[in-house]
Amino acid sequence: MLIKIVGLHAPHAPRLRALLGPEHEVQSLDSFPPTGEIHADVVISNSVSADEAARLRCRLVHVPGAGSEQIACRSLSAGTTVCNVHGHEVPIAEFTLHAILEHYLKLWQYPARLDAAAWAASYSKRAPHDEAHGKSVAIVGFGHIGQEITRRARAFDMHVIAVTRSGRQGPAELAHEYVQAAALDEVLPRAQVLVICCPLDDSTRGLIAERRLALLPPGALLVNVARAEVVDEQALYEALSQQRLGRAVLDVWYQYPNKGQAPVPPSRWPLHELTNVRCTPHISAITPALLERRYSFMARNITRLQQAQALENVIYLAP
After folding, report:
1. What is the homologous superfamily of the domain 89-279 according to CATH?
2. What is the pLDDT of residues 226-253, one digit of tens each?
3. Rounded Cα–Cα distance for residues 285 and 291 (Å)
4. What is the pLDDT of residues 63-76, one digit of tens each?
5. The two domains 2-87+288-317 and 89-279 share their CATH topology (first three levels equal)
6. Distance of alpha carbon 148 from its chain centroid, rounded?
7. How far is the C-alpha of 161 from the C-alpha of 170, rounded, in Å?
8. What's the CA gap between 228 and 106, in Å, rounded?
């Protein structure tokens, strides 16, 4: 079988090649060719434009992550299957809990080096920090990531409110409350922490805008590990710069660098200049273990395709 890994994941072609064995040809491409049909059995890519999708002649498009909003599914040739892969929930949950604990412990207020010169002043000016214990955390999106965050938040005796599309009740040992997204306005005033981990689509784009940010209690923390556009960009900047929102930890962004194009900032607003924002470059999920899990899953799915078995994590089948 011919497998093409295109774009950001192209450097991982040797990893997949080792998993699949010599009977498969694994090619790495920085980008799709600009014209002409693109032939392969499998294409692995985070992004496929409508033009590229129309030129694809393959059986399987495998997204090497969970988010598929950059795949122009409706432009794919009939019979093309699109699958995604998870495995990122554990490191993202750990990242989120670190963000919450950092917010309450405020370790950044102490000197990086506690030597003789800093010790006396630091000791005499010690200020009390807060606790995660007993705080309410609203988790918008309760899939793989949301549930892993919940398990860790419960270990710190936090009160977990799961916000889902349906509001359908789930296991009591996970969330304390299950609330429909339509009732989000009732949840926000009592959420000291708001975690965004839902997919980006037409119903969630701009879900958290000026009015809803204003509903959060003073000093609240917002953590976004989903997609930046779930939170209105300008409203977020203004709420943080005016101290109406206590703090934000942002791992996902409104603009991303593209090879061959001029550098862009991660946001059109200077969020990076604010002292109450922790900016990270979309790294919450990146661990060696994640890559092992994801590529092992994709290798198994490719083997299933070869053996005419049912594929896992099918998210779209082109009619």
Report:
1. NAD(P)-binding Rossmann-like Domain (3.40.50.720)
2. 999 999 999 999 999 999 999 999 999 9
3. 9
4. 998 888 899 999 99
5. yes
6. 13
7. 11
8. 25
